[in-house]
Specification:
This protein is α+β, with helices and mostly antiparallel strands and about 240 residues long. The chain contains nine helices and seven strands. Helix content is about 45%, strand content about 20%.
Length: about 240
């Protein structure tokens, strides 16, 4: 038969073991959760379409050392992660100060305020592109640069502008009047030649369908719209009408 003191000691030992087991289980769960979080972050980091570079401030914010680089940053910037990590951004991107990026890093470091830089043209001995940058500061002081290569968008926009200019020159060079109606927005493009054929200057006619319809002769309105509706119902391959 145990005495009360022995029973009390026994219960204390059991409780201590239980608490230690619970603490150990809690620590294991915390480590597991931390590991899973790190794995999710790494997967997201490496599979982002945008380039991401994480920097550590050095020399009291007068320089920045690359801590991490994702796969897209390697592709866009033509750098190898193993060669970039631990190097100054000025070493890996020799002209970064010329384009205002380095000053932006320092501003974000000093103020803590995020900045989005307008698209800029960047060129050095390794790379040439149009880049859009977003830079922010983490609570631990690290600076994160997220950027996208938008050179394809720039080229497409330039080609589109050139195409539009060629189209307009072709219109003005021809003697035909042209109007182009967006049925969804009710906006209409009237060529200058079309306006001139009606006796108007370039700025005297607006860009709505009413500018056309209000100039129709009353005797022609019904047939004009009947032919138009026939085309919109796909009963005719194109809209043709004399008025």
């Amino acid at each position: 038969m145990f005495c009360p003191l022995v029973k009390s000691i026994h219960r204390g030992v059991v409780m201590a073991v239980e608490e230690e087991t619970a603490d150990q289980f809690s620590n294991e769960q915390t480590l597991k959760t931390l590991k899973e979080t790190e794995q999710r972050y790494r997967a997201m980091f490496e599979n982002m379409k945008s380039g991401v570079v994480v920097c550590l401030p050095a020399d009291s914010g007068r320089d920045f050392v690359i801590k991490d680089v994702n796969n897209s940053a390697e592709r866009i910037s033509r750098v190898h992660k193993d060669e970039a990590i631990g190097k100054s951004v000025l070493t890996m991107f020799s002209d970064i100060d010329t384009y205002g990026l380095f000053d932006c890093l320092k501003r974000v470091h000093n103020s803590g305020n995020s900045e989005s830089l307008p698209a800029l043209y960047y060129k050095d001995e390794l790379r040439e592109s149009w880049i859009h940058n977003f830079i922010y500061k983490l609570p631990n002081g690290e600076i994160v640069v997220i950027y996208d290569d938008i050179i394809d968008t720039r080229i497409t926009a330039a080609e589109l502008r050139a195409s539009e200019e060629r189209w307009k020159f072709a219109l003005e060079g021809a003697r035909d009047g042209v109007w182009d109606w967006n049925a969804r927005t009710n906006e209409v493009f009237f060529s200058n030649q079309w306006k001139a054929m009606l006796g108007y200057g370039p700025s005297e006619i607006g860009s709505t369908l009413e500018e056309w319809s209000k100039r129709l002769h009353p005797d022609d309105i019904k047939q004009c719209y009947e032919d138009l509706e026939k085309h919109l119902r796909r009963e005719s391959p194109f809209y043709e009408n004399e008025h």
